[in-house]
Write a structure and sequence with these properties.
Urate Oxidase; about 25% helix; alpha+beta
Length: about 260
């Protein structure tokens, strides 16, 4: 049959990324407490397209994933990228995986256990070498320092989110990054709280007021202590409870 994608294109224009988006596929993750965790990822896969080709072969992206069956994991993303690059005759390959990750989390006083969901992602690039970024989105509580200082009886507080991306050498546990991040706010979020726990969390947040600027600096300060991290980006958003807007802060740092 005629291979139209492989035909030459006269417009002489390179394309940075061509491929597939929003493919849901099972993946396997390293779980610190239970060794392994199966989840479902939403996957984007791209390669570059030289100016002389009209199109790429979209079906090959799915074929490459299918060879790994349910064993797609962080340790073989490099192999997947290399296969994409070779089989699609590309100079660069790119993959994004976004997925829910679940951690059993104990309430701070009673120890009641509930499952917390965190939205995580891997981003992998291959040109001359493989570069991998791990990202986590962690829900938090922030309590306003100004409100606490001005009010006689209370202070406004609200849920927020810390989005952190890190590039690293070696291996980095998802759980470790989540724990590091959520301890930088007024209080972590829990899926299950008894009355004793709720009292503790409320009082703990009151004793630890933070602006979004404080949170983003707290995270950066902790990330700076990890010698294996070579780059990071931190974004903090507070879903304000008494304003008609949200508060936001971000920073990015290349360590090496």
């Amino acid at each position: 049959m005629r291979d139209i994608q492989n035909e030459s294109d006269p417009r002489n224009i390179n394309i940075d990324k061509v491929g597939i988006k929003n493919l849901r596929y099972p993946i396997l993750l390293s779980d610190k407490a239970h060794k392994q965790q199966h989840t479902i990822a939403q996957i984007n896969m791209y390669v570059n397209l030289p100016h002389n080709f009209r199109g790429t072969h979209m079906s090959r992206f799915v074929e490459i994933l299918s060879r790994f069956h349910r064993e797609i994991a962080i340790h073989n993303i490099g192999t997947i990228l290399k296969t994409m690059k070779q089989e699609l005759n590309a100079e660069s390959a790119h993959i994004e995986m976004e997925f829910p990750y679940f951690i059993e989390k104990k309430a701070p006083v009673t120890g009641a256990v509930g499952l917390m969901e965190y939205r995580c992602n891997f981003v992998g690039n291959l040109t001359d070498k493989t570069r991998l970024v791990l990202g986590v989105a962690v829900p938090i509580t922030t309590l306003c320092p100004c409100s606490k200082d001005m009010a006689k009886k209370s202070a406004h507080n609200q849920r927020g989110k810390i989005r952190t991306q890190v590039r690293f050498k070696g291996f980095f546990w998802i759980e470790d990054l989540i724990e590091l991040v959520e301890n930088c706010a007024s209080s972590p979020i829990y899926s299950l709280l008894k009355r004793e726990d709720e009292k503790y969390v409320t009082e703990h947040a009151y004793e630890n007021p933070v602006f979004v600027e404080d949170v983003v600096r707290n995270v950066a300060q902790k990330l700076d202590t990890y010698s294996d991290i070579t780059w990071y980006k931190v974004e903090v958003e507070s879903y304000e409870s008494i304003h008609n807007h949200d508060a936001y802060a971000a920073l990015e740092k290349k360590v090496i």
